[in-house]
Amino acid sequence: MTIAVYPGRFDPVTNGHLDIIRRAAKLFERVVVAVYDAPERPTLFTAGERVALIRESIQDLSNVSITSFHGLVVDFARRQNATAIVRGIRKNADFEYEFEMALMNRKLAPDIDVVCLMTDLQYQYVRASLLREVARLGGDVTSLAPPNVITALRAKQGQRKS
Q: How many other C-beta atoms can be found within 10 angstroms of the C-beta atom of residue 96?
């Protein structure tokens, strides 16, 4: 069975993330979405909340599971018996960062490949931090994340529905 891990903060999950998950689910027999539970920067949502938001957003994908993790991604991937780590790339800066991380991961775990999926054009500008900021300022973010995430984001930020 080919297993891939898609790691990230997902604070919160966006439609861009979900697009990568759905596409990875077509490429691999099993995809484990790995929510990093000890990021270097504070998060708006707890790891448990982020796991729940993703789980609710992809209920229709039977070959995808969601869990939190900490430590090195390659160690987590090995525990999952994964042969690949999936990453999404939106722009040149993402490529440079992901390339550097892929080389480090290759050094740490030569048996695990990094598979980069190019973001769909409609999501190239979408990132979780921008989603949070626009929502905080009262902008319309309904096309950037699934309804359950928008609801949770508004509740967390104390906003009314726009």
A: 11
Per-residue pLDDT tens digits for 52-74: 999 999 999 999 999 999 999 99
Strand residue runs (E) in 21-110? 30-36, 64-69, 84-89
Retrieve residue 142's tokens: 């309904």
Report angle CA 123, 128, 134 to the nearest 5 degrees.
90
The pLDDT value recorded for residue 58 is 96
Give residue-wise pLDDT tens across range 121-161.
Answer: 898 889 999 999 999 999 999 999 999 999 999 999 884 44
Cβ atoms 82, 49 nearer than 8 A: no
Residue 147 buriedness (CB in 10 A; 0-12 / 13-18 / 19+): exposed
CB 157 within 8 Å of CB 134: no
The pTM assigned to this predicted structure is 0.93
Q: Are the beta carbons of 58 and 88 closer than 8 angstroms?
A: no
Spell out the domains of the chain, with CATH numbers in brackets.
3-124 (3.40.50.620)
Q: Tell me which residue of 11, 4, 57, 18 sits closest to 153, measured CA to CA.
A: 11
